Amino acid sequence: SDAKALGSVSAGVNLLRQGDKALHDGDLLQAAQRYARAALTEPNEPLHRLAVGVTLAELRKTGDALLPLRN
Fold it and tell me: Can you give the pTM of this predicted structure?
């Protein structure tokens, strides 16, 4: 069961990876949406909040970008 736990990926990490792919493909809005869903799925994971904040800043939505970074 430990091997299974190590091999499993959380829903938040899956969403983070989808966001990374969208970012790589140049779709900042899709990336921000995936990162936001990851942050909602795993609210105690700072990497998810950082990813959505940075992506929103890239979209020039600086007011929105600061919210996930403050929590």
Answer: 0.79
